[in-house]
Amino acid sequence: MTVETAREALAGRRVMVTGAAGFIGGRLVERLRLEIGAEVRVLVRGVASASRLARFPVDFVRGDVTDPAALAAAVRDCDVVFHCAYGTSGSQRHRAWVNREGTRRLLEAAARAKVGRVVHLSTLMVYGKTPDGDLTEEAPRRRFGNAYSDSKLEAEEIALACSRAGRVPVTVLQPTAVHGPWGGVWTETVLRSLRSGRAILIENGEGIANHIYVDDLVTAMLLAAVVEGAVGEAFLASAAEPVTWRQMYGRFERMLGPPARTVSLTEAEARAYWKECQARRPWLLGELASLVKKDRAVRDRLFETRELRALRELASGVLPEAWQQRIKSRLSSHEVPATSGEGELPVLPLPPSMINFFRARTRVRIDKARRVLGFEPAWDFERSMEITEQWARWAGFLS
Amino acid sequence: MDEKVRLAVVGCGAVAAGHYLPSIAASRLVEATLLVDRDEARARALATRYEVPATSGDASAVAAHAEAAVLALPNHLHAPVAIDLLRQGIHVLVEKPMAISTTECDAMIEAAEASGAVLALGLQFRSFDSTALVAGWLASGLLGPLRRFELRLGVISRWQFASDFVLHRETAGGGVLTDYGSHVLDLLLHWLGDWHELTYRDDACGGVESDCELELTMASGLGGFVEISRSRNLANTCLFEGETGTLEVGIWDPDPPLIVRIGGEQLRLDGRARRGKSPGLTFNGAFLRSIDDFARVIRQGGEPVVSGQEGRRGVALIEACYAARQALQLPWSIPQRAQREVGTS
User: Fold this and answer.
1) Which of A159, B31, B166, B221 measures 20 to 30 Å from B322, CA to CA?
2) What is the DSSP string of A73-102?
3) Residues of chain B falling short of pLDDT 70
4) Radius of gyration of chain B (CA)
């Protein structure tokens, strides 16, 4: 199967996308409309978040992935469903429930509507903390320890079990760090955090960043929607070659220009710095709380600063719930990261679990996607970052 | 003191619930006597909250309960409902945009003229203190002859729309140009007079645009650039460059920052545009001003802050933009094009 034949197979077909207002789902809708001419329906929770989708003549169904009535309306007469939605609001517990239960209910609706194929977007995180060396789909799935990853693992298990039971044909994709225009955690959040502080690179950033440009992931999704042999299977989706974290963060740093926005620390130094920041919090908390309690205007104003927004988003993307709650309460009291010398940006503390993540030298293999789906990444890292830089400039991240 | 104007609110969606009803409740010149919404349960819930005595699912009930109406409906309903009410002699304040075509605007103006009812526009940016201040400074010649203007407005909306009318051209009339553009183009026309030529680009691909750019030459010969977005947060300022100085004003904030630079940095004024020592204006404060202005015109005569003719002028400019539409070039949108362009850069 080639991308061209996948395009032909999807042309004129009715396709439903969950999570279409998000980064990957939004790009998928763009390509389904601009390149393929599919009849697209989207399930969206709110109107305001759908403004970029409204550029196209798509069919909107309002509701969320846990609402059976909205799901039934959304999947009616569809040939293919792409499930990109995941829990993005409420507590971590609620988000995890949305990941599990939303997937289950979507698949039930798709089975009843006799949908021809569901492409379930999973994540590399279903393999938990991965060992150094090559990683394939044969590796054991393991809990990572945070609500997002663990609930995505459960959702993937639900999806594959449903497919293997013959209820609805499902193909699972497990992308690595997805980046590109409108990208969330691995583009916008990185840019925002590097604007506000220096990111710690563990051991000079020599850990491996398994990444994929969003258009390559969307290509893999299109293939997953039509390749016969892909039913009931899961595929890792990543770039042809990984980069190091130094290369990835360094490229974002180059986009933003001086001053320095990364700092190399050893693992031990990063852990010590984290502890030091933790220890400093009570004092800052007291100082700031007294100021903030006096004046709501000050509180609101501080809470909406770019730096604190970036930290909040970063935290919600990667941290366990208990940490998020702690950080949230401190951000409410306006703690700021430690500052460094004059003219230098503050160093952003890195939680221990992320220290492990950035240190790892796991190398994701995509042989199965190549062999079964005919997937071949078209974007190398530098070209994908050039186009991302053009977008970031237009979107105001570099000004 | 004049008797309060008995007012119906037709359309109980987000703008009515969030802005019009709280502002009407705060006004000493009007009282809400009827709420109308297709979803009458929604109207009843708001009526209970704001102590409005009557509700209806149909605008035909207005004449029995009110002498004036605020229309906060999906855009495509502005003209038919306004014309029907104006013909009955009911005064109408229409939320922006006035209508989705100049033909509709003309029919609304004609209906108002025939019955003598007041037709006013809900373009609240006009009520900001900064709007009058900027108009005065531009007219004063403080900046010397103007050379150029640049206006950038981009806000990722969190608006809780009750319906999805804004997602469709048939019901919204357009995208961000019709939505945010109604405000800022009205400001430019108010400050700088009529326009002469334009070049317009947006990102719509069979639907309604999320981002647009406009190069605009005014009848005076002054040229400028306008960028409007609901997918990106932009600077939200309008910058005027004159021969002797510049003026930059915030344009989304009802209590906006203002920066004036004259003679390089010899004189720099950096502050907020306020009336005397008054506290900063809020959005609902701006709605209250436009409602009170509407009530004054009904009781005492005169022209509203934004008349039907002025509303039509903004719609005409938006209409001209869509007629001249070109595609906004976003290289990352089409993968093949993006690869080609990056590959040759």
Assistant:
1) B221
2) HHHTT-SEEEE-----SS-HHHHHHHHHHH
3) 1, 266, 335-345
4) 21
Interface touch A378/B210, C-beta < 8 Å: no
Chain A positions touching B235 (Cβ under 8 A) are 396
SS3 at position B248: strand
- Give strand ranges (E) for B159-207: 195-202
CA nearest neighbour of B284 among B30, B98, B32, B18:
B18
Q: Return d(Cα B181, Cα B95) in angstroms, integer.
A: 14
Taking residue A283's Cβ as centre, other Cβ atoms within 10 Å add up to 10
For the record, the structure tokens of A84 come out as 């990109």
Longest pairwise C-alpha distance within chain B: 73
Stated as kind and residue range, the H or E segment containing B55 is strand B55-56
Q: What is the pLDDT of residues A18-35, one digit of tens each?
A: 999 999 999 999 999 999
Phi, psi angles (nearest 5°) of residue B52: -95, 130
CA pair distance A121, B3, nearest whole angstrom: 63
Contacts of A387 (CB under 8 A, 6+ apart): A180, A181, B331, B332, B338, B341, B342
Question: What pLDDT is attached to residue B264?
Answer: 73
Say if strands A177-179 and A211-213 run parallel, antiparallel, or are unpaired: parallel
Best mutation target among B161, B165, B325, B342 (most A Cβ atoms within 10 Å) is B342
Q: What is the pTM of this model?
A: 0.88
